[in-house]
Design brief:
With 507 residues, the chain is of the alpha/beta class. The chain has two domains: 306 residues, Rossmann fold (3-Layer(aba) Sandwich); 91 residues, ANL, C-terminal domain (GMP Synthetase, Chain A, domain 3), CATH 3.30.300.30. 32% of the residues lie in helices and 26% in strands. It has 16 helices and 27 strands. Helix 7 crosses helix 8. The model has no long low-confidence stretch (mean pLDDT 93).
Length: 507
């Protein structure tokens, strides 16, 4: 198998009239998706070249899924740009892609042009009922390889400039084949999509669905402001599987969505993006005691995830979840600052998580310098050049040989003479009885650890409980109660915004 479109074609043969996708406005069958995509692919073949990027400037939807598959039929790769992005970010992404074509809705034309785009625009309103040419499409497929790009998702970038992570067919096929097999995702499943389509969590939703012949329910972003709408959509569509960001699960739990209604068909809950607060996890497990719960880890650069841990016991609120095992055909290991491997017989010694295997992205698109920094030659292998990805994340083995996440290298601070991981403080903060969710950052100027939290406790109560768990130097100096913690476009806690707001108030 060399192309992810083979997933779609095989499932269309088996389930031509089954709904492959639905959102709040429309639905489509496998046959309809395939025919629409072939029409778009034929159109693009006359407008651009195979291997070129095509930007998709629209919100996630059934139509968006048709466009993605159409771009792949045209031999190109897609990159979704959220129309709500500021002009500067849109311009930066388009400048990196250097694409010839943007596919969008007519309502977004002014915003797109306002961001400086001067190339060709194809409107989705004009893509209905297109004819397709099987000969053209067959020729494109014949000349393709499994190393061709499928999508380019843009991450924040430590320099403030978005980096486009380009992922190929081979990496997706290798991962999704294992992912669906390990977690028994089948044609009988209905996957409730939470993640934006420019976030790699959605890759698991989309390609798991079309591989096994399942159905994806695309939940609008706006619904998450009103949890009852999310729960109704899950329940009405008999959703069985949630592959969500931790923050989305926590949000629904904190806003008491499941007290309103418990969708009865959910049997698999997989989460990633941040450390899951055990208190929030146990809230979900109380509603779904028999469901499969899985802790997933992995950055965008390694095609979704590289480790998984299937929860096999109850966890107390002061515990952390293990990272678990590497997915098949992926190698996960730790390196210290001297590029020496930290093995499981060296417990409680943290090192940088590194990953090798087919899972690795092709690199950062049009960014040779950043690619060279992150995708490096394996320093442990001198016999031949093997590429690994340095994640920038830290982990350690415990005495039982289990791997645990230990935070970001750039979240490690020096405070009161001690090296401290901010995530460790957050983990303890989140376990405090009167706190439902927390986030910490370091005020370098004042040398203070700042904790923002959602909960009903005061500083004295929080400090009292934290001091039972960590030394004084790890107890935050500043506590800021909030109704909700802001989240980024990718569903993670927006630390940068919290820090910015804090600095503004301090002035």
């Amino acid at each position: 198998m060399r192309n992810v479109l083979e997933y779609l074609e095989e499932s269309t043969l088996k389930h031509p009239d089954k709904n492959v996708a639905l959102d709040d406005k429309e639905s489509c069958t496998y046959r309809e998706l395939t025919e629409a995509a072939k029409g778009i692919g034929t159109l693009l073949a006359g407008k651009t070249y195979a291997g070129m990027p095509v930007a998709v400037f629209m919100d996630k939807s059934v139509t968006c899924l048709k466009v993605f598959m159409g771009i792949l039929y045209g031999g190109c790769f897609y990159s979704l740009i959220d129309p709500s992005f500021p002009d500067e970010r849109i311009a930066s992404i388009l400048g990196t892609l250097q694409n010839d074509i943007v596919i969008t809705r007519k309502e977004h034309e002014q915003k797109l042009r306002g961001a400086g785009y001067q190339g060709e625009i194809v409107f989705v309103e004009n893509l209905d009922g297109l004819s397709y040419d099987e000969e053209i499409l067959a020729n494109i497929r014949q000349n393709a390889t499994d190393m061709d790009g499928v999508y380019c998702n843009f991450t924040s970038g430590s320099t403030g400039v978005p980096k486009g992570v380009l992922v190929c067919h081979r990496s997706i096929i290798d991962f999704i084949d294992n992912f669906t097999d390990i977690f028994n995702i089948t044609e009988n499943d209905v996957i409730g999509n939470q993640a934006p389509f420019d976030f790699d969590v959605s890759v698991k939703d989309i390609y798991s669905t079309i591989k096994v012949g399942a159905t994806i329910v695309i939940i609008p972003k706006s619904y998450f402001m009103f949890p009852n709408q999310v729960v109704d959509m899950l329940d009405q569509n008999n959703v069985t599987t949630l592959i969500w960001a931790v923050s989305a699960l926590c949000l629904l739990n904190r806003m008491h969505g499941l007290k309103y209604k418990v969708p009865s068909k959910i049997n698999k809950i997989l989460f990633s993006g941040e450390m899951m607060p055990i208190k929030q996890l146990n809230g979900w497990r109380s509603y779904y005691p028999d469901a499969l719960f899985v802790n997933l880890y992995g950055p965008t650069e390694i095609t979704c995830n590289c480790t998984y841990y299937i929860l096999d016991r109850e966890f107390a609120e002061d515990e952390m979840l293990p990272m678990g095992n590497a997915f098949p055909n992926e190698r996960v290991f730790l390196l210290d600052d001297e590029n020496r491997e930290i093995t499981s017989d060296m417990p409680n010694t943290s090192g940088e998580i590194c990953v090798a295997g087919t899972c690795l992205a092709l690199g950062y698109y049009n960014n040779e310098e950043m690619t060279a920094k992150a995708f490096i030659r394996n320093p442990l292998e001198r016999r031949f050049p093997e590429t690994i990805y340095r994640t920038g994340d830290l982990a350690y083995w415990n005495e039982d040989g289990l791997l645990f996440f230990a935070g970001r290298k750039d979240f490690q601070i020096k405070h009161m003479g001690h090296r401290i991981e901010l995530e460790e403080i957050e983990s303890v903060l989140g376990s405090v009885s009167c706190v439902s969710h927390g986030c910490c950052f370091f005020d370098e100027e004042k040398s203070k650890v700042v904790a923002c939290y959602v909960g009903n406790g005061d500083k004295r109560q929080i400090v009292e409980e934290m001091r039972k768990r960590v030394p004084d130097y790890m107890v935050p100096n500043v506590f800021i109660p909030m109704e909700e913690l802001p989240i980024t476009k990718n569903g993670k806690t927006d630390r940068a915004l919290l820090k910015e707001q804090y600095k503004s108030r301090r002035k």
